[in-house]
Amino acid sequence: MRYSILELARQALSRHRGWKPAWRDAQPRDGYDIVIVGGGGHGLATAFYLASVHGLTRVAVVERGWIGGGNAGRNTTIIRSNYGLPGNEPFYEWAMKLWEGLEQTLNYNAMVSQRGVLNLCHSDAQRDAYARRGNAMRLHGVDSELLDVDGVRRLAPFLDFDNARFPVQGGLLQPRGGTARHDAVNWGYARAASDLGVDIIQNCEVTGFMTDAAGAVTGVETSRGPIRAGKVGLAVAGMTGVVAAKAGLKLPIESHALQAFVSEGLKPLIPGVITFGAGHFYVSQSDKGGLVFGGDIEGYNSYAQRGNLPVVEDVCEGGMALMPMIGRARLLRSWGGIMDMSMDGSPIIDRTPIPGLYLNAGWCYGGFKATPASGWCFAHLLATDSPHETATAFRLDRFRTGHLIDEKGVGAQPNLH
Amino acid sequence: MRIPCPFCGSRDSREFVYRGDAAPARPTDGGLGADGEPMFDYVYLRDNPIGELEEFWYHAQGCRNWLRVVRDTRSHMISAAVLGAGHATGGQA
Ligand SMILES: Cc1cc2nc3c(=O)[nH]c(=O)nc-3n(C[C@H](O)[C@H](O)[C@H](O)COP(=O)(O)OP(=O)(O)OC[C@H]3O[C@@H](n4cnc5c(N)ncnc54)[C@H](O)[C@@H]3O)c2cc1C
Ligand SMILES: [Zn+2]
């Protein structure tokens, strides 16, 4: 069923009784050409591009819970391509280009809203760093504007500009950045992939791997029985360490919890996405009016899908330092997700040393914006056995060879990224 | 989360600095080995277990001891905490 204004009118005439489920609830078959483990945004996008770009439809996405129950449905929905390093920027810009056409491609309203992402600076050194990053972006053909204080004031007059400790001195704006509706992204990819013949199998946990005599992966063991596969791709985000260990892989990844918060609904207040440069705090306003904000990861290994009070306090302090007005808003909800923190803060899209097993992981707290390109590039790798041109740097062996992509310059400390 | 420091008693986790998994041991020969493998393993690779993890915490705003703490990464329940030189689970230091 194609969604359109005509279809809406037609359904309205039959009192909306004719809508069909958006995707088939598939039962596992004996085998597939490719099995994707993990029905988050990345797994679903991978399956969609395998079918739509590479014509591979004997594909299954195997999800232990419900699709989008992981980080794909827990994030703060910021999309941007304002990276500085050559290994990153073309990839994130490819994601941005895919976001820009996503709703037409999927025939689904993902509420992609390019309302701008503004990173604030609070010192001369930080302004220099932003000028450099902005220039690096422009060299890759990406939009960026370095704003002075007046420029920031025009966009966000409510900031505490003359804060004694962290005065706002300007900012780096990416006008094409913004937000998207996370659940709709998952549902849109699921629906489009399912329509092309991909099986989306929920409530099916991968518990182990089948291998042949040579050690190559030939399928997955699941809570609903074994499923044979020509190739297996892992896209399990925070559970990467646990699932990879079942195949005997030890990875440069630690799992850490990240929280997010949303306030009661307010009248339109915050124009785009704003990030504090002197602490870790970022905020945007959802279409329902809630202020959606977050900050640092908890800082210690965690598989608990929730956070603790020190970070709640830290995030709220950051918010109060930047925009004291939000002290009047009440907090509605907070929640947490488990991040696959890589050692240099950058992702991995690569083969593994085990034949037949492919890895998509290490997204840290920034994988939502990457979803379309991650799916595109992982599908490319699975279909062609060679990396996509925008993802050649995301290699698993870069930690061994020293080709780190250390965007934040904090080395091999996942809790600092 | 509160951490039972053997020297100071039960203290708020905010007084501590986290160092992570205590299992990786720094290679003694400078780490290069024939191929740099031991240092690579020590710096980058992690078991990242779900469940009990033995890890280092530094009591920066307390006695300034390094602790080895055994914590469940699902519930943050702490089952053991000893001063750094020991092994909370009873193994070799
Ligand atoms: C609070 C928070 C805020 C964030 N904010 C942003 C942001 O503003 N911008 C941004 O770009 N990124 C953000 N992120 C990061 C982003 O959400 C993740 O990097 C991204 O969603 C990870 O990819 P995914 O969608 O495929 O992961 P997930 O949705 O976590 O998908 C992994 C799936 O694998 C499944 N799985 C696990 N183990 C198994 C198994 N054994 N068998 C079968 N299935 C299994 C899980 O159930 C899960 O559904 C945020 C994350 C959080 C938690
Ligand atoms: Zn102490």
From TrEMBL, chain A:
Signal peptide: none annotated. The keyword Cytoplasm applies. It is found in: Cytoplasm. It comes from the Bacteria. Its cofactor is FMN; FAD. GO terms for molecular function: nucleotide binding; sarcosine oxidase activity. Its EC number is 1.5.3.24. One of its GO terms (biological process) is tetrahydrofolate metabolic process. Residues 34-78 form the Rhodanese domain. Belongs to the SoxB family. This is Sarcosine oxidase subunit beta. It comes from Novosphingobium nitrogenifigens DSM 19370. The lineage of its organism: Bacteria, Pseudomonadati, Pseudomonadota, Alphaproteobacteria, Sphingomonadales.
TrEMBL record, chain B:
Transmembrane segments: none annotated. It comes from the Bacteria. GO terms for biological process: tetrahydrofolate metabolic process. InterPro entries: SoxD, SoxD_sf. One of its GO terms (molecular function) is sarcosine oxidase activity. This is Sarcosine oxidase delta subunit heterotetrameric. It comes from Novosphingobium nitrogenifigens DSM 19370.
